[in-house]
Amino acid sequence: MKEDAVALAVVENGCLISPHKLFIPADTSRYYGNQAFLKRALDVVMASVMLLVACPMMLVIALLVKRSSPGPVLFIQDRLGRDGKPFRFYKFRSMQNDSNDAIHRQFAAMFINGDESGCKKSNAGDTVFKMKTDPRVTGIGAWLRKTSMDELPQLFNILRGDMSLVGPRPPIDYEIENYQPWHMERLKAVPGLTGLWQVSGRSSVSFEEMVRLDVNYINNWSLWWDFAIILRTVPVVLWGTGGH
Fold first, then answer.
1. DSSP 3-state of 14
2. Least confident of 22-31, 115-124, 126-135, 213-222
3. Nearest to 120 by CA among 133, 112, 110, 129
4. Domain residue ranges in the chain
5. SS3 at position 170
6. 87 three-state secondary structure
7. What is the percentage of the chain residues whose pLDDT exceeds 70?
8. Based on CB atoms within 10 Å of each CB, which residue in 18, 168, 177, 213 is the most buried?
9. Could you tell me the sign of the dihedral formed by the alpha carbons of 203, 76, 138, 140, in that order?
10. In the predicted model, what is the mean pLDDT of residues 218-226?
């Protein structure tokens, strides 16, 4: 279904239950054939170049993480890729080793269900969808998250084919327990290192708006749009915009 398709609604007992559940299904027809080959080729070439350029920085980050607290340099976690297929997801460790995930489980449920009680207000009065405090995060980890440097190991995920440079962020399996059916549309594309969410405010964007951004990206994907999003990601990373 193309971008000019009629929006669908979730209906219960013959009644429209909420206008915010209007949505346009994700159209994955662009992800096959020559276009899919070109997207994959772009991923492999750019991820390889980025790894070569970032290698010295990654070595320094690895040393800083190792010195910051006991534990491994990398944080490896199961995430859900295209069509919900699980894969091993890599990041630089930004938290204390063996941290309990109960805090994040609670926050994820609140964020997905639209509960703003765990959010805070920015200086400009805008809502920021983030945890007020997370005692698990280390000192170097806070900086890595702010600058998104903790995401650099995902370049290996891209080379493996688990991820793309641009696409929806891959969820954790327990997060989709709180999804409504239409939220699953964002899983119809290969997940990305960056995407529309990252360049559209990140922590200032609600979950439902994030899903709409993801579906919009899937339905209107092109190589030129990927290039544009990658270019827009650069200042976001340099200035730490919306990063937490």
1. coil
2. 115-124
3. 129
4. 11-239
5. coil
6. strand
7. 80
8. 168
9. negative
10. 92
